[in-house]
């Protein structure tokens, strides 16, 4: 039984310009790959800079959810859509799934210690979370799964993982 170091050709000289013992991974090939990566990055950056900003306002909450849920959007584009629609009140008809306590670092002071209704839009499966202020805790706490609720709220956030909007009740 031989050993890997018993190979008589292990220390043979390699001709310049050949693939050598490193094969395709010789340092000069690594440099060529790095240069092509840099060119790709420059092209991608240029394309991103030329991309048109997301334009237009949604004419309905369902339309807004369609815009935010589009799979081809980048995070920056979703943030721009949210920015365009911040402050606009939406009237939505919901079907309650459950009621939770509101928590998180980004909760506005007026909504701290309040309740959050997890729901879906009436007539669809579009998910929505609505945060309510503390003075409404008793009223919101009585809601049960399946109850219908009409809400006025402002878009506060979008959860891309769960494809769910968060509204702050007005």
Please outline what is shown here.
The chain has 4 helices and 5 strands; from the N terminus they run H-H-H-E-E-E-H-E-E.
Q: What composes the largest sheet?
A: 5 strands, mixed, barrel
Beta-strand percent range = 25-35%
CATH level 3 topology of the largest domain: OB fold (Dihydrolipoamide Acetyltransferase, E2P)
Distance between the termini: 81 Å
Can you tell me the CATH class of the largest domain? Answer: Mainly Beta
Shape: elongated
Number of strands: 5
Per CATH, which architecture of the largest domain?
Beta Barrel
Helical residue percent band: 25-40%
Number of helices: 4
Can you describe what's shown?
With 170 residues, the chain is α+β, with helices and mostly antiparallel strands. It has two domains: 16-51; 61-169, OB fold (Dihydrolipoamide Acetyltransferase, E2P), CATH 2.40.50.140. Helix content is 29%, strand content 26%. It contains four helices and five strands, in the order H-H-H-E-E-E-H-E-E. It has helices at residues 27-50, 61-69, 75-85, 137-141, and strands at residues 89-101, 115-121, 127-132, 148-159, 164-169. A five-stranded mixed β-barrel has the order 1-2-3-5-4. Strand 2 and strand 3 (127-132) form a beta hairpin. The longest helix has 24 residues, at 27-50. It is elongated. The relative contact order is 0.13. The model is unreliable at 46-54 (pLDDT under 50).
């Amino acid at each position: 039984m031989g050993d890997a170091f018993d190979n008589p050709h292990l220390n043979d000289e390699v001709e310049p310009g050949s693939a050598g013992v490193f094969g395709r991974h010789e340092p000069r090939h690594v440099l060529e790959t790095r240069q092509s990566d840099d060119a790709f990055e420059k092209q991608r950056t240029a394309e991103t800079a030329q991309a048109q900003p997301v334009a237009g306002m949604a004419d309905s909450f369902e339309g807004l959810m369609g815009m935010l849920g589009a799979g081809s959007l980048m995070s920056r584009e979703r943030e721009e859509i949210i920015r365009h629609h911040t402050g606009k009140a939406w009237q939505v008809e919901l079907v309650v799934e459950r009621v939770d306590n509101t928590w998180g670092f980004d909760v506005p002071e007026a909504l701290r210690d309040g309740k959050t209704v997890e729901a879906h839009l009436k007539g669809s499966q579009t998910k929505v979370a609505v945060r309510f202020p503390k003075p409404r805790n008793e009223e919101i706490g009585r809601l049960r799964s399946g109850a219908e609720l009409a809400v006025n709220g402002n878009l506060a956030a979008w959860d891309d993982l769960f494809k769910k909007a968060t509204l702050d009740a007005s």
